Amino acid sequence: MSFWSLKSPKAIGFQLFSLVVLSCALPVSLQAQLKAEDAPAPQDNSAQTRVASSGFLKLGPGDLVEMSVYNVPELTTKTRISSNGDMYCPLVGYMHVAGLSAEEAQAAIERRLSDFVKSPHVSLFVSEYASEGASVLGEVMRPGVYPVMGQQHLFALLSAAGGLTERSGRSLSITHRSDPNSPVTISLPRNLSDNSETNVPVFPGDVIIVRRADIIYVVGDVLRPSGVMMDSGGLSVLQALAMAGGTQRTAKLSGAKILRKGPTGMVQTPVDLKKILQAKAPDIPMEANDILVVPSSTGKILAGRTLEAAIQAATLLSVAAIP
Question: Are strands 226-229 and 215-220 parallel, antiparallel or unpaired?
Answer without folding.
Answer: antiparallel
